Amino acid sequence: MSNDKNQEDLALVPNQLFAARGLLDRMTQRELAEASGVSERAIAGFEAGETVPHNSTLQKIREALERRGIEFSNGGNPGVKLIRDKAIIPT
Question: What is the pTM of this model?
Answer without folding.
Answer: 0.84
